[in-house]
Amino acid sequence: MSQIPPTPTNLRGAVDLSALVNRPAPGQAAAPGAAAGGENAAAGEPLPLPSLFFEGTDANFNDFIDLSMRVPVVVHLAATWAEPSAQLSPVLDRVTASLDGRLVQVKVDVDANPQLAQAFQAQSVPAVAALVAGRPVQLFVGALPEQEIRDVFAQLLELAAQNGVTGTVAVEGGAQPEGAEADAAEPAPEPLPPHHAEAYAAIERGDYATAIAEYKTAIAQDPRDAMAVAGLAQVSLLARLAGKTADEIRSAAADAPTDVDAQLGVADLDLSGGHVEDAFDRLLSLFPTLDAAGKEAVRSRILDYFEIVGVEDPRVAKARARLASLLY
Q1: Is residue 6 a part of any domain in this protein?
Q2: Cβ proximity of 169 and 47 under 8 Å
Q3: Which letter does DSSP use for residue 22 in this model?
Q4: Where is the Thioredoxin domain (predicted)?
Q5: Domain membership flag for residue 58
Q6: Taken in order 192, 193, 197, 200, is the CA torsion positive or negative?
Q7: Domain that holds residue 199
Q8: One domain, residues 148 and 219
Q9: Are strands 127-132 and 135-141 parallel, antiparallel or unpaired?
Q10: Is the distance from CB of 125 to CB of 269 less than 8 angstroms?
Q11: Residue 178 · residue 97 · CB < 8 Å
Q12: DSSP string, 174-196
């Protein structure tokens, strides 16, 4: 886990996202109340917003950069196909709602917003970052326990205060912030099966080998366990990328355009960053040039990607048809 230092004094050296994202086109709706609220609220007064929770896109994100001049903005980089994203979301919502409007949360679908995924250098999901005074701060990657998230957010608020970002948000109309009543309104989720729970705990520790072994055991006990199959594919992807930088992976692929392992590595990187179609296209374009062993390696990796992305995803259907045409 990479957390912000406990006592940083400034944000110099951070990437300026305003150079990397597009402002909304004329007439396009902005993030609800984000920019307007900052102009209308008097200094020192709570900033009126319709919610503490927003959806961020490549088109509207500059509004949240503006908002971060008043109040810290937590950015949850997620993907619908990533089980840890779904597990992390309610925890983030609960922690955000408990902080009395001292920060807001923006959720970004990396598949639908590749520019933001690239701007935040999201090599895997879920990833959580923040904006403070218009500057990005990397917080953590993966689904952490709630208390650790509270500790990270406490450090974030200290950092914001050191940079003069001390505003608060008041939800307009006194409405209950989304997520504040989640525990009371919704039944407790079903506990994970034992091997899934062990795998998830291992992923939190960064122990991918144990997680892989747990998912394999679950599949051996029930070959129809679709969650275990998808979980195995996801954690195997994390294990392959662990300890490598994006620059190293892309340089290796550029230096060896016909090397199967190098191309598989950069396809992994593309998929983890939400560039699903790029990953599929890279491997499917390479496939016809390979020998039998290379084709089997690529076919197996693509099948893993199908599980990670989700078999009902239209991009999977398109890639599956293309793979079938190459095979037969």
Answers
A1: no
A2: yes
A3: P
A4: 19-158
A5: yes
A6: negative
A7: 194-321
A8: no
A9: antiparallel
A10: no
A11: yes
A12: GPPPTTTTHHHHSPPPPPPPHHH
Would you give the DSSP letter of residue 313? Answer: S
3-state secondary structure of 56: strand
DSSP collapsed to 3 states, 248-294: HHHHHHHHCCCCHHHHHHHHHHHHHCCCHHHHHHHHHHHHHHCCHHH
The model's pTM is 0.52
Which two tokens mark 101? 């409007």
Tokens of 271: 């998929």
Q: Which of 197, 189, 206, 237 is nearest to 89 (CA)?
A: 189
Q: How far is the C-alpha of 303 from the C-alpha of 316, rounded, in Å?
A: 9
pLDDT band at 107 (very low <50, low <70, confident <90, very high): very high
Q: What angle do CA 194, 211, 4 make, to 5 degrees?
A: 110
Treating both helix axes as pointing N-terminal to C-terminal, what angle do 208-221 and 226-241 enclose, rounded to 10 degrees?
A: 160
For residues 174 and 262, state if they share a domain: no
116, with CB counted inside 10 A (0-12, 13-18, 19+), is buried
DSSP class of 30: -
- Statement to judge: residues 208 and 116 lie in one domain: no
Contact predicate 273/110, CB 8 Å: yes
Q: Which of 4, 283, 30, 248 is nearest to 149 (CA)?
A: 4
Spatial CB neighbours of 313, under 8 Å, sequence gap ≥ 6: 81, 276
Q: Residue 134 and residue 15: Cα distance in Å, rounded?
A: 10
Structure tokens at 230: 């998808």
What pLDDT was estimated at residue 19? 42
Query: CATH no. for residue 137?
Result: 3.40.30.10
pLDDT of 5 above 50 = no
Question: Could you please report the per-residue DSSP string of 111-137?
Answer: TT-HHHHHHTT-SSSSEEEEEETTEEE
In which residue are the tokens 């076919």 written? 299
Pair 286, 158 in one domain: no
Q: Per the domain annotation, does 53 fall within a domain? A: yes
Verify that 249 and 158 share a domain, yes or no. Answer: no
